[in-house]
Amino acid sequence: MAIVQAPPDPIHTTTLAEIQPGRYVCREIHAAGQDAVRLKRLGVCQGRMIELVGRGDPMILKIGASRVGLSRQLAKVVLVDPASVSPLNPESAPVSAPAPAV
Known about the structure:
SH3 type barrels, FeoA_core_dom, globular, single chain
Protein backbone atom coordinates (compact mmCIF):
# COMPACT_ATOMS: atom_id res chain seq x y z
CA MET A 1 0.00 0.00 0.00
CA ALA A 2 1.41 3.41 -0.98
CA ILE A 3 -0.28 5.69 1.56
CA VAL A 4 1.90 8.68 2.36
CA GLN A 5 1.22 10.50 5.61
CA ALA A 6 0.48 14.20 5.28
CA PRO A 7 3.39 16.38 6.42
CA PRO A 8 2.72 18.66 9.38
CA ASP A 9 1.13 21.92 8.29
CA PRO A 10 1.27 24.68 10.92
CA ILE A 11 -1.69 26.53 9.40
CA HIS A 12 -4.05 23.66 8.67
CA THR A 13 -3.92 20.05 9.81
CA THR A 14 -7.52 18.85 9.60
CA THR A 15 -7.78 15.59 7.71
CA LEU A 16 -10.86 13.93 6.32
CA ALA A 17 -10.49 11.26 9.02
CA GLU A 18 -10.85 13.85 11.83
CA ILE A 19 -13.88 15.87 10.74
CA GLN A 20 -17.51 15.84 11.86
CA PRO A 21 -20.37 15.34 9.39
CA GLY A 22 -20.85 18.35 7.15
CA ARG A 23 -19.58 19.98 3.95
CA TYR A 24 -15.88 20.47 3.25
CA VAL A 25 -13.59 21.31 0.37
CA CYS A 26 -10.59 19.14 -0.38
CA ARG A 27 -7.48 21.26 0.16
CA GLU A 28 -4.65 18.81 -0.58
CA ILE A 29 -4.01 15.11 -1.02
CA HIS A 30 -0.79 13.54 0.24
CA ALA A 31 -0.94 10.12 -1.40
CA ALA A 32 1.14 8.38 -4.03
CA GLY A 33 0.77 5.52 -6.47
CA GLN A 34 -2.42 3.45 -6.42
CA ASP A 35 -3.82 5.37 -3.46
CA ALA A 36 -3.66 8.66 -5.37
CA VAL A 37 -5.30 6.99 -8.36
CA ARG A 38 -8.02 5.43 -6.16
CA LEU A 39 -8.86 8.79 -4.56
CA LYS A 40 -9.03 10.53 -7.92
CA ARG A 41 -11.32 7.83 -9.33
CA LEU A 42 -13.64 8.28 -6.35
CA GLY A 43 -13.75 12.01 -7.08
CA VAL A 44 -11.58 13.09 -4.15
CA CYS A 45 -9.35 15.77 -5.65
CA GLN A 46 -8.19 19.29 -4.82
CA GLY A 47 -10.98 21.87 -4.84
CA ARG A 48 -13.79 19.28 -4.80
CA MET A 49 -16.77 19.72 -2.48
CA ILE A 50 -17.08 16.71 -0.16
CA GLU A 51 -19.87 16.04 2.32
CA LEU A 52 -19.19 13.65 5.18
CA VAL A 53 -22.39 11.67 5.72
CA GLY A 54 -21.19 8.89 8.04
CA ARG A 55 -18.11 8.66 10.28
CA GLY A 56 -17.71 4.86 10.44
CA ASP A 57 -14.99 2.81 8.77
CA PRO A 58 -15.46 3.06 5.89
CA MET A 59 -16.52 6.70 6.05
CA ILE A 60 -19.48 7.58 3.82
CA LEU A 61 -18.86 10.61 1.62
CA LYS A 62 -21.17 12.40 -0.78
CA ILE A 63 -19.20 13.63 -3.77
CA GLY A 64 -21.33 15.26 -6.43
CA ALA A 65 -24.40 13.05 -6.84
CA SER A 66 -22.60 9.90 -5.64
CA ARG A 67 -22.03 8.33 -2.23
CA VAL A 68 -18.77 6.47 -1.71
CA GLY A 69 -17.10 4.59 1.12
CA LEU A 70 -13.54 5.56 2.06
CA SER A 71 -11.34 3.85 4.66
CA ARG A 72 -10.20 5.95 7.61
CA GLN A 73 -6.58 5.09 6.78
CA LEU A 74 -6.92 6.58 3.30
CA ALA A 75 -8.91 9.55 4.67
CA LYS A 76 -5.88 10.51 6.80
CA VAL A 77 -4.01 11.74 3.71
CA VAL A 78 -6.76 14.14 2.58
CA LEU A 79 -6.60 17.67 4.05
CA VAL A 80 -9.87 19.59 4.08
CA ASP A 81 -11.26 23.03 4.86
CA PRO A 82 -14.82 23.78 5.99
CA ALA A 83 -16.84 24.68 2.90
CA SER A 84 -17.86 28.05 4.33
CA VAL A 85 -14.29 29.37 4.59
CA SER A 86 -12.33 27.66 1.82
CA PRO A 87 -10.41 29.81 -0.68
CA LEU A 88 -10.56 26.85 -3.09
CA ASN A 89 -14.34 27.03 -3.32
CA PRO A 90 -15.64 30.21 -4.96
CA GLU A 91 -19.20 29.19 -4.06
CA SER A 92 -18.33 29.59 -0.37
CA ALA A 93 -17.41 33.26 -0.67
CA PRO A 94 -19.93 35.64 0.86
CA VAL A 95 -22.22 37.22 -1.66
CA SER A 96 -22.30 40.99 -1.51
CA ALA A 97 -25.36 42.99 -2.39
CA PRO A 98 -25.19 44.86 -5.71
CA ALA A 99 -24.43 48.56 -5.48
CA PRO A 100 -27.49 50.79 -5.78
CA ALA A 101 -28.01 52.39 -9.18
CA VAL A 102 -27.26 56.10 -9.28
